[in-house]
Specification:
- Keywords: Amino-acid biosynthesis, Histidine biosynthesis, Hydrolase, Methionine biosynthesis, Multifunctional enzyme, NADP, One-carbon metabolism, Oxidoreductase, Purine biosynthesis.
- It contains ten helices and eleven strands.
- It is an alpha/beta fold.
- It folds into two domains: about 30-100 and about 105-135, 3-Layer(aba) Sandwich (Rossmann fold), CATH 3.40.50; about 140-275, 3-Layer(aba) Sandwich (Rossmann fold), CATH 3.40.50.720.
- A hairpin with a 7-residue loop joins β9 and β10 (about 245-250).
- It has helices spanning about 5-30, 45-60, 75-85, 105-110, 125-130, 140-150, 170-180, 200-205, 255-260, 270-290, and strands spanning about 5, 35-40, 65-70, 95, 160-165, 190, 210, 230, 235-240, 245-250, 265.
- It binds guanine (GUN).
- The site of guanine has 6 residues, from β4.
Length: about 290
């Protein structure tokens, strides 16, 4: 049975570390980190995610501002709102929750965010800096995974890391981070996607398998090398009448059978998910202390 990589506990450890630093800042009379989140429209999942981010800010002593905008807002008005926050010296970090309504260009909005407030790490400047192995705000999910590998002392140097899924938010940056010269990193990386041939055979050669393709229980035990480290980024609701809520959460990995074969694995829920908020908070702390960018 694999070691459980506990994202819930690790994210709480990180939140405690950040809260301790906030307490020090308060004692020193320094500036309290302040995160602003823009939420456009009333998408249920986005409301839940943003609510969790704002709640986490309060828990650790950050200030937060939630800007709720109607989904009929024009692109120009949203860009103007981003400009306002860019120019507001009291706000250290800004996120614009995705997805945005179809009439608004994600590229234009992302490109408008000032890179030194881009605590989501989505701007071309931060993605480029990350790819160059320069100091940068790294996107929350890949950063959370890197932190889990570090805190569980998982050896990555010389290992074969297979990433399934090439999204801008997870798969693509993850492949860059695992290949870069450092720790975690120095892995030999294969980035696979919907057009990859022989995916199963490639996955079977992975020492570290990072799964972020968004298909429930896609990875089964026969795709996993004995002793592999398996990181599951997927999260899906499935109906379950035995639960009070009527549903349960599953990942992109068939957990029970893969856990029998892997040496370490992240559960869903309680694996990568909780780490994303901890990463966002950490980036916001860095932004407030002007430590990474600029
Ligand atoms: N939508 C889904 N994940 C994210 C995220 O990490 N940041 C933002 N801004 N939107 C998201």
């Amino acid at each position: 049975m694999a070691i459980l990589i506990d994202g819930k506990k690790t994210s709480q450890d990180i939140k405690n570390e950040i809260a301790a630093r906030v307490a020090e800042i308060k004692t020193e009379g320094g500036k309290i980190p302040h995160l602003a989140a823009i939420l456009v429209g009333s998408d249920g999942a986005s409301q839940t995610y943003v609510g969790a981010k704002v709640k986490a800010c309060h828990e650790i002593g950050f200030e937060s501002t939630l800007v709720r905008l109607d989904e009929t807002i024009s692109e120009e008005e949203l860009l103007a709102k981003v400009e306002d926050i860019n120019a507001n010296p009291d706000i250290d970090g800004l996120i614009v929750q995705l997805p945005l309504p179809k009439h608004i260009s994600v590229e234009k909005v992302t490109d408008k965010i000032k890179p030194d407030k881009d605590v989501d790490g989505f701007t071309p400047s931060n993605v480029g800096r990350m790819a160059l192995n320069w100091p940068a705000y790294v996107a929350a999910t890949p950063y959370g995974i890197v932190e889990l590998l570090k805190r569980y002392n998982i050896e990555t140097s010389g290992k074969h890391c297979v990433v399934i899924g090439r999204s801008h938010i997870v798969g693509s940056p993850m492949s860059i981070l695992m290949a870069r010269n450092g720790y975690p990193g120095n892995a030999t990386v294969t980035l696979t996607h919907s057009r990859t041939q022989n995916l199963k055979e490639i996955a079977q050669t992975a020492d570290i398998l990072i799964v972020a393709l968004g298909k429930p229980e896609f990875v089964t035990a026969d795709m996993v090398k004995p002793g592999a480290v398996v990181i599951d980024v997927g999260i899906h609701r499935v109906e379950d009448a035995s639960k009070k809520s009527g549903f349960r959460l599953i990942g992109d990995v068939k957990f029970d059978e893969v856990a029998e074969k892997a040496s370490a694995i992240t559960p869903v829920p309680g694996g990568v998910g909780p780490m994303t908020i901890a990463s966002l908070l950490y980036n916001t702390l860095l932004a407030a202390e002007k430590k990474v960018y600029g």
